[in-house]
Amino acid sequence: MTLTRAVIASLVLAAVVLFGQKHGLWGVREAPAPPPPTPAALAFRRAQEEAAARAEAARAEAARLAAVTQPAETPEVLPPGEGREEVFGACTACHSTAIIRRSRFTRQQWDDLMDWMVEKQGMNPLDAEQRRRIVDYLAAAFPAASGSAGRRAPNPFLTD
Amino acid sequence: MKPRTGRPERGLLELYRDDPERADALVWGRRGALRGAALAAMGAAVGAAIPFARRMPPGLVPAALAQPAASGSGGQPNLLRMEGKAPLVILGERPLVAETPEHMLDDEVTPADKFFIRNNGQIPEPFAGDPKSWTLRIEGEVNTPLALTLGEIEQRFPLVTRRLQMECGGNGRGFFSPETRGNQWGNGAISCAEWTGVRLRDLLQAAGLKESARFTGHYGADPHLSGDPNRPAISRGMRIEKALDEDTLVALRMNGQPIPHVHGAPVRLIVPGWPGSLSQKWLTRILIRATPHDGPGMGGTSYRVPVRPIVPGSRNDGRDFVDLESMPVRSILTNVAHGTRLPAGTRGLDVRGFAWAGDKTVRAVHLSVDYGATWQEARVAEPANRHAWQRWSGRVALPTDGYYEIWYRATDSDGRMQPHVAGNWNPQGYGANPISRIAVLVG
So which domain of life are we looking at (chain A) (predicted)? Predict the structure, then answer.
């Protein structure tokens, strides 16, 4: 009798334990889900993500632009002549050489431009000898053109 | 002149490049009359017989030989390769300057990728903050100086959307003879995008203009090329009347999108019809002044033209010049590229493009394929709104095979036409708007 009761009691106990485990009343339980985030926390996280995305976009854009605005130039992009290295050294800190190569001026105009570059654009003044060499080079390499046939697009109908 | 033996075309091309005056004298004859041999040589130079050659004005270099480099066909122009931009013709990398060839401007509303680029300084670091937090200041001769974020601006003031033409003050400079200082633009430093923003006059009204408020001065975030933080790259200004024009916008969006960085994100001025340098990019501050602004780009020969015409090529400090304000009338042809080769037997060509005239409108556009001997009128549409460019279209007859130039000439609402040559020469090359032309070859 006592034995029968003990068996039943243990069976009931086992059933209760199993039921309890199955329904998560005891035994191995998963960590409780965190409380749902407050709206403020959600907004903060979103703002952080947006800021990171903007920073990344800004970095990418800056890199794209740098690839275009910082061409790898060497003095050889300028026509050969005495003073070429000096011109390249003195004149490419602020702008690429395209602005020089596009120009066609008289010696006087090149000379005036040196003053303009110093007075209006913050170029360090050139000493007299350096200025003479630079202006001589520029006036020889990029002399005045009449404009009607300066540096024009090539004739589209002649390819040789 | 006898046609050169061997490769005459080469010789003539070189001659034109090296010594155009002499080439002209040789080719066209002393009295400017076209002679048989000279005509043959010219035909060889452009690569075809020239119908209507007798009507080509003496001394005129054929368009095939005389287009500024940025006309963008033939040869190897330096093309922009950048995500978000079409292959525009690079005029300079630093500062970044790029022209849109006419034939790439066929859209009614200029898309962002085909918008020309002109910078005077470095391109600033892209703004990584929330665009709504960017601050714009309005200071000077006002009752209440303002410091408004873009977020506040959008909330407080009505947004308007307009199609507005915006053109570099130096557009067409490449047509001047002798050559002047500055970027040698063809006609492609022009755009007509759809801008959304608030009217500058609404902001000025909120700040309250004092009696003394007569001029503006504009400041942006782009650093000077030297990197010197105390030197603005460019800072120009205008008469207060233009600032109060209903089409002068503090623009926040371009074609419904945030303004691309290279075009002035997140906010820029749009001052339609006046030199583009007034449409300050990366706008940070507008100073209201009692006297004309004196920032870099003002005074002297900058954006200024002679009142009393000066000798082309002469030296001048610009003291007696006046500021270039409303841009002169101009036209572009957008559906056929300069240098297009048409099948033999082509006898007609549909052409279209745009025309505009600063603050004015365009009354007419005329077309000629015989060097201006005869003209025919094209259709001209109304602008979408004030300060938008106008579509023109027409059809020209090409009576034979051979080399043709299509000339297109707009007339503004005051009756002023594009002149035959770029006039009122000035040292920095503003206001060149000669009759536009492209060359085509039939056969």
Answer: Bacteria
Q: What percent of chain B has pLDDT over 90?
A: 81
Residue that is written with structure tokens 């003496």 in the block: B58
- Structure token digits, residue A28: 């191995």
C-alpha closest to that of B114 among B124, B122, B104: B104
Note whether A156 contacts B64, CB cutoff 8 Å: yes
Domain membership of residue B5 (yes or no) is no
Backbone angles phi, psi at B412, to 5 degrees: -85, 175
Q: In this structure, is residue B56 part of a structural domain?
A: yes
Residue written as tokens 């020239």? B50
Per CATH, which fold does A75-141 belong to?
Cytochrome Bc1 Complex; Chain D, domain 2 (1.10.760)
The verdict on a CB contact (< 8 Å) between A147 and B176 is yes
Cα distance between residue B197 and residue B160, in whole Å: 6
Q: Judge if B216 and B262 occupy the same domain.
A: yes
Q: Find out whether B400 and B155 touch, Cβ atoms under 8 Å.
A: no
What CATH number has the domain bearing residue B149?
3.90.420.10
Give a yes or no: residue B96 inside a domain.
Answer: no
Q: Are B434 and B175 in contact (CB under 8 A)?
A: yes
Cβ atoms of residues B138 and B286 within 8 Å: yes
* Per-residue pLDDT tens digits for B298-311: 999 999 999 999 99
Report the C-alpha gap between A114 and B10 in whole angstroms: 37
What percent of chain A shows pLDDT beyond 70? 77
Angle in degrees, CA B39, A146, B97, rounded to 5 = 115
Please answer yes or no on whether B126 and A61 come within 8 Å at the CB atom.
Answer: yes
Q: Parse chain A into domains and list their residue ranges.
A: 38-69, 75-141
Domain region containing B136 = 112-323
Note which residues in 96-115 of chain A have CB less than 8 A from chain B. Answer: 96, 98-99, 102-105, 108-109, 112-113
Instruction: Name which of B282, B125, B78 is nearest A63 in CA terms.
Output: B125
Question: What is the model's pTM?
Answer: 0.87
Nearest to A144 among B61, B178, B228 (CB): B178
